[in-house]
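Deliverable D2.4 — example input (structure tokens):
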């Protein structure tokens, strides 16, 4: 190759955008304000007008979140709302042939097709363990009202410093028994540091029902590197969820972080940071249920499109100054539970 050709090749290579290496940490500039150094919570609370009607001590809750990566809002959801939501779930199970709601089945015999529509899942499977009802809020007005409850929205709007957008939900009857993990590895928004979750107790939690466990303070630990995909997991990752769980338990132990078990009451809400290490404990009494409603959230700037239609303008439902997008693939199933 001549000198001229080599120079042309070098110039072309320099001008060609190079693929960015996979992220192994959140980019500091994109972090929510509360995750940055010297975040002034007292100053924020003074100017956050919406927080004036928050039924808890907002500054105290924000400081606890900053230190521990979670907060609990006691008696946040009216029991009548919780009961109504579960009646709708029972209707879905009993008359499953009427509904197209997606169901995640984590059982070996369904490994080839783990996601099916409710109408295609036998009742005895649908009503048993290892089942997650996906995005039931699409079907349910009450599901949306609980997901975007004023207390949840007020706190998360403060955390993000931006309008709240609900991304997805999971409903289940029995404990998940899921290994230790952090949500950002699986649930990804357009700005991955703008992610939080709510776990809403639909009944009192018993110690033997496979309760949720978590490691306070783990949201500040170094992220696990899945290898080819960085801190996000996919089918192309070098390492798997078991490696992820083992890493988290090891670094939590090394950091002196103690595992805690969540035993909360019906209507209580756990809100947690995307990086909080948590999981589902073993079910020691299979007769016990752990009725749960889990919702994930991002911010307006970080989640602008429905994950099923990333190039389309979403249809928005707005409650308490926050948004949730209608499912673009199942418009006929929207709000069928009034």
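Example output (designed residues):
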């Amino acid at each position: 190759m001549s000198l001229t050709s080599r120079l042309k090749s070098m110039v072309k290579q320099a001008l060609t955008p190079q693929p960015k290496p996979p992220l192994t940490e959140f980019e500091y500039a994109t972090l929510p304000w509360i995750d940055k150094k010297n975040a002034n919570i007292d100053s924020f609370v003074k100017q956050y007008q919406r927080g004036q009607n928050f039924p808890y001590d907002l500054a105290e809750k924000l400081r606890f979140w900053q230190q521990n990566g979670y907060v609990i809002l006691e008696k946040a959801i009216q029991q009548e709302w919780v009961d109504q939501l579960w009646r709708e779930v029972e209707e879905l199970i009993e008359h499953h042939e009427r509904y197209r709601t997606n169901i995640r089945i984590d059982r070996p015999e369904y490994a080839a097709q783990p996601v099916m529509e409710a109408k295609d899942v036998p009742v005895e499977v649908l009503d048993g363990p290892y089942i997650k009802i996906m995005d039931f809020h699409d079907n349910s007005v009450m599901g949306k009202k609980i997901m975007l409850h004023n207390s949840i929205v007020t706190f998360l709007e403060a955390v993000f410093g931006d309008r709240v957008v609900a991304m997805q939900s999971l409903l289940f009857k029995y404990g998940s028994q899921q290994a230790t993990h952090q949500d950002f590895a699986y649930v990804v928004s357009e700005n991955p540091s703008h992610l939080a979750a709510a776990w809403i107790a639909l009944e009192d939690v018993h110690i033997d029902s496979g309760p949720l466990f978590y490691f306070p303070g783990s949201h500040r630990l170094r992220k696990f590197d899945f290898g080819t995909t960085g801190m996000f997991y996919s089918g192309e990752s070098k390492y798997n969820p078991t490696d992820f769980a083992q890493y988290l338990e090891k670094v939590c132990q090394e950091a002196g972080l103690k595992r805690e078990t969540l035993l909360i009451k019906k209507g209580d809400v756990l809100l947690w940071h995307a990086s909080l290490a948590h999981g589902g404990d073993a079910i020691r009494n299979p007769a016990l249920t752990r009725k749960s409603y889990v919702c994930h959230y991002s911010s307006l700037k970080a989640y602008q499109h429905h994950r099923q239609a990333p190039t389309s303008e979403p249809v928005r439902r707005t409650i308490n100054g926050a948004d949730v997008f209608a499912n673009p693939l199942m418009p006929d199933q929207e709000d069928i539970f009034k």
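The chain has one domain: 52-214+259-333.
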